[in-house]
Amino acid sequence: MTLAEMQFVPPDLRLASAEIFMLAMACLILIADVFVKDKKRTATFVLTVIALLGAAVITFNTSSGQVLYTFSNMFVGDLLSDLLKLLVYLTVIVVLCYSRSYVLVRPQMARGEFYSLTLFATLGMMVMISANHFLSVYIGIELLSLSLYAMVALNRDSTTATEAAMKYFVLGALASGLLLYGMSMIYGATGSLQISTVAERLFAGDGNKTILVFGVVFLVSGIAFKLGVVPFHMWIPDVYHGAPTAVTIFIGSAPKLAAFAIVIRMLVSGLIVVSKDWQAMLLILSVLSMAVGNFGAIAQTNLKRMLAYSAISHMGFMLLGLVVGVVDGDARFALNAYSSSMFYIITYVLTSAGTFGMIMLLSKAGFESEEISDFAGLNKRSSWLAAMMMMMMFSMAGVPFFVGFFAKFSVLQAVVAAGYLWLAIAAVFFSLVGAYYYLRVVKVMYFDQPPANASRIEAPVGAKVLMSANGLAIAALGLFPQTLMSLCAFSLLRSL
User: DSSP string spanning 109-173?
Assistant: First the structure.
């Protein structure tokens, strides 16, 4: 190696300035919180929101629309990463605003750690979204996962929360091991861990095919755990149910965007040459997830567990778009299929945040409004909030003229265009099964009598306004879905 080859190339820190800012703010808030005497942690909350808004401004201002690399090509800045990061910031701000009143009446939750861990988890998601190296992906996943383990266990007095955190930690460690093993095999097959270099070598026909396929198997298994699809779904119902609702809403929303990003980075950008192998695996995972998720949700009386099984089925539905991107080596359908999946995941995150937000809106000190029966007669207690919840349920069920319908329709259209008619029929069947338990919640709200001890809904005005904006956004995107669909397609076109 010559001296010229050994020279250090300074990284372009401007590309990663949002990540650097987020890390600095997370550390600052962690230290500043020591000096905060206010039990409500108002200063910590405000600083956290400022950190997210600041990162959003930086991401927007540094976006060039070009595909740029830094840190020895381990970090990529493109339109896809910019869009997903902005959506992550928005989602986390919405989650924090929903959680504010819930956290205040629970002393075990009203600590600065909740906000610091939220920012570190957000930083992990940002790294995952911009990763162009398998180890960068792994670092982002671990930063996110370690923060989430601690957040699930924040309520130390709750045995269900502690049990959920332990289960999440053990299974998460297993998934991380599978990911690392898969990455090591891909390195053995191609001689590189840089995603773009792996893709180039596979296009050139280099690499050991047998080892590569084994690596892909382990990689997909690790990704499946992070997405929460069958058969790696065991943690989802227990964590969603056991964790405090303020943590459940966080786990059930923003990380899904980051998980979608790593699927695109690793499988589509890096391993598109062996798409036949990983598409076959994702096809099986998708069908099983839709089946287990929808039939499992029917049996639930707890709304959080029902939404956990619903999340499994939705992730299965999202995978359909990734299954049909390449057909017999023909990538003509790829952009349509992948953008449909992206549109689906964004709409799911929006709807999921609103649904869990409603659970927290109806909760009080010493009372978790998480049973389906707790929503009985909600229309008589607050017809406006009942209408917002109905919109969430209709959207998740895929009722026409709500955004969930167009998300499902776009994925099904991509599946049919690729020639997988039987798969589209199976997906429609499972969607009809899913409609039953969503409409059951609507029936309980509008036709059942409210409990005798039901009190007035005393939610903060800000939370009610946010809930209204969330519900109306679902309705508006259902009427005008084309803008978001085009944005998804354009960002993928400019980034892949």
Answer: T-SHHHHHHHHHHHHHHHHHHTB-BHHHHHHHHHHHHHHHHHHHT--TT-HHHHHHHHHHHHHHH
Other beta carbons within 10 Å of 260: 26
Structure tokens at 74: 């381990």
Where does residue 441 rank: exposed (0-12), middle (13-18), buried (19+ CB within 10 A)? buried
Say whether the peptide bond before residue 231 is cis (omega within 30 degrees of 0): yes
Residue 66 Rama label (left phi>0; alpha psi -120 to 50; beta): beta
Question: What pLDDT score does 457 carry?
Answer: 75
Span between the terminal Cα atoms of the chain, in Å: 33
Residue range 303-323, pLDDT digits in tens? 999 999 999 999 999 999 999
At 107, list the tokens: 């002393």
* Residues whose CB falls within 8 Å of the CB of residue 270, separated by 6 or more in sequence, listed in order: 195, 196, 198, 199
CA–centroid distance for 58 within its chain: 22
- d(CA 169, CA 146) in angstroms, rounded, equals 8
How far apart CA 495 and CA 65 sit, in angstroms, is 9
Q: Cα(75)–Cα(96) distance, rounded to whole angstroms?
A: 28
pLDDT at 8: 67
Estimate to the nearest angstrom the gap between the alpha carbon of 360 and the chain centroid: 19
Answer yes or no: are the C-beta atoms of 92 and 250 closer than 8 Å: yes
Name which of 483, 406, 102, 437 is nearest 294 in CA terms: 437
Distance (Å, rounded) from C-alpha 166 to C-alpha 150?
Answer: 10
Distance between CA atoms of residues 353 and 248, nearest Å: 10
Confidence of residue 112 (pLDDT cuts 50, 70, 90): confident
d(CA 334, CA 145): 30
DSSP result, 48-106: HHHHHHHHHHHHHHH--SS-EEETTTTEEE-HHHHHHHHHHHHHHHHHHHHHHHHHHT-
Question: In the structure, how many helices (H) and strands (E) does the chain have?
Answer: 21, 2
Q: Give the CA dihedral 296, 406, 358, 317, nearest 10 degrees.
A: 30
What's the pLDDT tens digit per position in 226-263? 888 988 888 899 999 888 889 999 999 999 999 999 99
135, with CB counted inside 10 A (0-12, 13-18, 19+), is middle
Cβ–Cβ < 8 Å for 313, 455:
no
Instruction: Assess contact for 151 and 162: CB atoms under 8 A.
Output: no
- Residue/partner pairs of 232-237 with CB below 8 Å, 24 or more apart: 232/171, 232/175, 233/289, 233/292, 233/293, 233/312, 234/167, 234/171, 235/167, 235/168, 235/171, 235/172, 236/308, 236/309, 236/311, 236/312, 237/296, 237/305, 237/308, 237/309
Residue type present at position 89 = Y
- Mean pLDDT across 456-471: 83
